[in-house]
Design a protein that fits this description.
Among the domains are: 140 residues, P-loop containing nucleotide triphosphate hydrolases (Rossmann fold, 3-Layer(aba) Sandwich), CATH 3.40.50.300; 60 residues, Alpha-Beta Plaits (2-Layer Sandwich). The protein has a six-stranded mixed β-sheet with strand order 5-6-7-3-8-9, with helices on both faces. It has a four-stranded antiparallel β-sheet with strand order 11-12-10-13. The longest helix has 16 residues. It is α/β, with parallel strands linked by helices.
Length: 295
Amino acid sequence: MLSGLRKSYGPIEAVRGVDLAIAPGETVALLGPNGAGKSTTIDLMLGLARPDAGSVSLFGLAPADAVASGLVGGMLQTGSLVEHLSVRELVAVVASLYPDPLPVDEVLDTTGAAAYADQQTTKLSGGQTQRVRFALALVANPDLLVLDEPTAALDVEARRDFWATMRGVASGGKTIVFATHYLEEADAYADRVVLLVRGQVVADGPATEIKARVGGRTIRATLPSIDLAEVCTLPGVVTADRRGDAIVLSCSNSDAALRALLEDFPAARDIEVRGAGLEEAFLEFVTDGRGVPAP
């Protein structure tokens, strides 16, 4: 439970009155542009920073106590791994700090770090380091996992594998909070999306609900050699863009636009109509800062 959280660094208000309640078993994504307060919020949740105002309660405990008891595991995007240890040794050392850790070999297998478990921590690639960080967060057997940009430095295949692992972890009843810049990850894997802009929550709910709040639809069609100015004049069309042989129309009234498109340009083919995606919603909320007073 986060209540009225505020945190400033000098003149910069990183977090400005964040309220957030998370139910057991939820997977929650924190989204926002750079400087929105995502990492600061996570630091406050993990007890790595003290709020200037407000409070954090995890399982009825202060963050530091919840982490020390093994109820909360954190994966940060900064910080180096301890040197002069193998991956297995490091995970084993961290496991020894908690009252009910998971078996080290099980965690290494789950996170995909078993393949280089005997390798020194200083010899790991960026993607391998991320997997080890995940192993360190998971080995405590926490009820809540808090992850800051967990798939940074991972390639597409590794990201897919990571989220397959996370689905398995979530299915075991774990609560997961993760910050990410990958909007498709939030859309695909989060039960709930919390969008931060300038240190405040501007949207909170399922991705489908947030996308619906933006409104508007997009029409995409293959229509080579057409002047965009012509399709911009169609009823219901707000903007038009070209993507190779395809045109993309942002519409206020997609039904009217589609009827006019087919009537005026019968050569149009491969037509798709879709609602606003999470990226469009994200950009609209960030651009107009809905509900957020100017700093």
